[in-house]
Design a protein that fits this description.
310 residues; alpha+beta; Glutamine Phosphoribosylpyrophosphate, subunit 1, domain 1; eight-stranded mixed beta sheet; four-stranded antiparallel beta sheet; 9 helices
């Protein structure tokens, strides 16, 4: 039994500098992060479970077109949306993951439904959407997911024939993956992550977000992790699980494990990004090796922390 709760959230990492963002835009992002943090914390305050807290926080971010998840998901090469999400319960090591979703309003809710109702851990594409229909998940039309800014990003990418990492840009109008991690007052950890992937991505590309152990991981004996960045590198480094491993098998602190993985291992591979992490003692780490990361955290009885830049 834990006597405290902690919650951390992120809205993507990448080339995010003060000079590239107006004061008004910064306020919008800070307000959005604050809303997600307060929504998750309100649940934890009442003794609520970590799993529902991370789900609630991620839903807030999925519903906000400022972030590349849910409503704000970026366009693929074919001009469609392919969203991915996952969620994990640290108590039983249960997890649910989905990818290639085109019309599910909140992918994280489908990931949880897969975890709780399905016989499989990971569902993709039309099969995942059919499972969502059978389980009463909310669907939306293409118009709902159409955000002019995202469409312009696709046009720019098509002109240069580039696949654009949503979080690595010089303009403040392209952001990435969202996620949340929490420890509840019952001592349970949970993590959830959701994304629209990369602008102009081709061939049904899937990143680290729905891969348990790469982009998302939670284990009550160690920590809960949600990643954001260049997914290919996070998969190769098995980032989320690696931090848990370093804690479980080498006895490292959360801080030291995060330092090794984010600032040494990922950098050696050429991987840019960051993650949010909480351990079973209530410690919080928000490391990133990019210029910035949209992030926030709160620990019971303490002031909320919201930040964007280094």
């Amino acid at each position: 039994m834990s006597s405290i709760y902690t919650l951390a959230i992120h809205g993507g990492a990448g080339t995010i500098s003060r000079g590239s963002m107006s004061a008004e835009a910064q306020k919008d992002y800070e307000a959005a992060l604050t809303q997600a943090l307060e929504t998750g914390e309100a649940w934890l305050k009442t003794g609520g479970d970590a799993l529902t807290a991370v789900e609630k926080a991620v839903v807030v971010l999925e519903n906000n077109p400022l972030f590349n998840a849910g409503k704000g998901a970026v366009f693929t090469h074919e001009g469609q949306h392919e969203m991915d999400a996952s969620i994990m319960d640290g108590k039983f090591l249960f997890a649910g993951a989905v990818s290639g979703l085109k019309h599910i309003k909140n992918p994280v809710l489908l990931a949880r439904k897969v975890m709780e109702e399905g016989t499989h851990l990971y569902l993709s594409g039309s099969g995942a959407e059919l499972f969502g229909k059978k389980n009463g998940l909310a669907f939306e039309t293409d118009e709902y997911f159409y955000v002019p800014l995202r469409y312009q990003q696709l046009q720019d990418a098509l002109k240069s024939d580039s696949i654009v990492l949503d979080h690595t840009v010089t303009k403040p109008d392209k952001f990435g993956t969202v996620g949340a991690v929490a420890l509840d007052m019952h001592g349970n950890l949970a993590a959830a992550t959701s994304t629209g992937g990369m602008t102009n991505k081709k061939h049904g590309r899937v990143g680290d977000t729905p891969i348990i152990g790469a982009g998302t991981y939670a284990n009550n004996t160690t920590c809960a992790i949600s990643c954001t960045g260049h997914g290919e590198f996070f998969m190769r480094a098995v980032v989320a699980y690696d931090i848990s491993c370093l804690m479980e098998y080498k006895g490292l602190s959360l801080k030291e494990a995060c330092r090794i993985v984010v600032y040494e291992k990922l950098v050696k591979l050429g991987g840019e990004g960051g993650l949010i992490a909480v351990d079973n003692k209530g410690n919080i780490e928000l490391p990133f090796n990019s210029e910035g990361m949209y992030r926030g955290s709160v620990r019971m009885g303490e002031e909320k922390f919201i930040a964007i830049y280094k």
